[in-house]
Design goal:
The chain is an alpha/beta fold. It is built from five helices and five strands. It has helices at residues 32-45, 65-80, 92-101, 103-106, 113-118; strands at residues 13-18, 21-30, 52-63, 84-88, 109-110. Helix 1 runs parallel beside helix 2 (65-80).
Length: 135
Amino acid sequence: MSSDPTPPATGYLRVRVDRGRTVLELHGEIDIAAAVEIIPHLDAATAHPGARIVIDLRHVEFFDCSGLRLLYRARRRVLDREGELRLICTHPLTLRVLKVTGLARLLPPAPSLDAALEQPDTALERPEPASGGAL
């Protein structure tokens, strides 16, 4: 069951609650201008201990490094507060960016909310330190 957006939506973001998770549904072109509008809502959603967050990128048409920074920021904040973070993404170019940057390994994208909720919570896994010699 969904509820109305809280906090109020921006042109790039709709926030709703669905099945006990806060869903941050991003829209349009996620660039630096969008990120400036999204960050306060992202921070509010991830401010509480044990927050259960889903970031939905299905309505995103463009996603640059500002969008990646938003995902890393959300992941870090959720990890710091022992919460849960899931990602929904179906756009081929955005999926490619997530894969190339390694973020897909840390935060595996799912094609739907149902699929995201069925995944194990890998967002809480901290990356292992690199092994081998010094750089």
